[in-house]
Amino acid sequence: MNAALPVDVLKQHLIDPEICIRCNTCEETCPVDAITHDSNNYVVDPDICNGCMACVPPCPTGSIDNWRLVVRAQAYTLADQLGWDELPREEALPEAAAAVLPPADATAPEPPANVAYTAAGASVPPWSAAHPYVNLYTHKTPVTATVVGNYRVTGADTDSDIHHLVLDFGELPFPVLEGQSIGILPPGVDAQGRPHHARQYSLASPRDGERAGYNNLSLTVKRVTEDHQGNAAHGVCSNYLCDLAKHDTVQVIGPFGQTFLMPNHPRANLIMICTGTGSAPMRAMTERYRRRIDTGENGRLMLFFGARTERELPYFGPLMKLPRDFIDINLALSREASQPKRYVQDLIRERAADVLGLLADRNTCIYVCGLKGMEVGVLDALREVTMQSGQDWTILHDVLRREGRLHFETY
Known about the structure:
Layout: E1 9-14, H1 25-29, E2 35-37, E3 42-44, E4 66-71, H2 78-82, H3 95-98, E5 143-152, E6 162-168, E7 181-185, E8 199-202, E9 216-222, H4 236-242, E10 249-256, E11 269-275, H5 279-291, E12 301-307, H6 316-320, E13 328-333, H7 344-350, H8 352-359, E14 364-370, H9 374-388, H10 393-402, E15 406-410
Parallel strand pairs: 11-12, 11-14, 12-13, 14-15
Antiparallel strand pairs: 1-4, 2-3, 5-6, 5-10, 6-9, 7-8, 7-10
Helix pairs in contact: 7-9, 9-10
Pfam families: Fer4_7, NAD_binding_1
Keywords: FAD, Flavoprotein, Iron, Iron-sulfur, Metal-binding, NADP, Oxidoreductase
Binding site for NADP(+): 202, 222, 277, 334-335, 341, 370-371, 409
């Protein structure tokens, strides 16, 4: 009689739908296209996933870091995963499968050496960053916040309707750090009759609140009326938020984010590169520095900020009132009638000597936030600036990522 074949056990990679905020980071990061999604869930194809772990560090919520030991022939299918509202319970393996289990201390697969740093930015925070709290509130257990302010921060005569929204949490704990984000649950249901998923927004306020000493925070929200191709589109959550009035309440989940965090050690320098509402985390970090301007703890701040016109730059007025010896501001305007068309990468090249000076300082961290398309332009500019000085950008780029000093948050 033939001996029974050994049971093939799979450590299956799954995404927790209760925590996932559908930000698409995992799908964009996966080097083998094992991750896909529908209007309900993000899922991992067990026939494609090789356990490289490239998608795990960039996930802002940790929802991607879930695993189940299953008999390979009984692995959860894409159809199974797309229909979940929560992860299934961990089931005991059959006796034949238990005999071939990995060691008790085995963890998720280790990434191959060649995918350790596949993303443009770091997968670790700066060494001195404060400890972040994440996922304190989920889709099932959101926290209620009250609107205490809602102000338009772009010119009323422009098509760019961007609002500064202040939310107060009262006595409920909601600790956050500069660079983190939250999820907003818009009311109502989608076309399939399901409650809307959360939309993610970066914090525009520092850790001690929009109003210092109060349990509040602020967001920078652009009213979406068209997609990136210029077609008419109604942003469900952005329009909801922009239309809120004082004393209205919203359902919030989070906070999220464990790597896009500012350094905490004295005299740390920040190079901040952003467009539009990507200014939110830069505002939070700048305000953190401004509030301690007399302590002697601050390093240098250098900002590259892009928009079509000055009137469409959120926070333009307050930004221009900051002391010039406190922050080095470089505005890239692409549609200003009286100026040549320029983008943030153009200004990085123009300020090459100063950028290089900061890059040479191990206390410097770089933050990039805005539309996904800006990543290539920024990296190309940094590469050119570095190479012009005779340095090897490949080596510097790897050092910046490994030391948690180059961070991207694009959408």
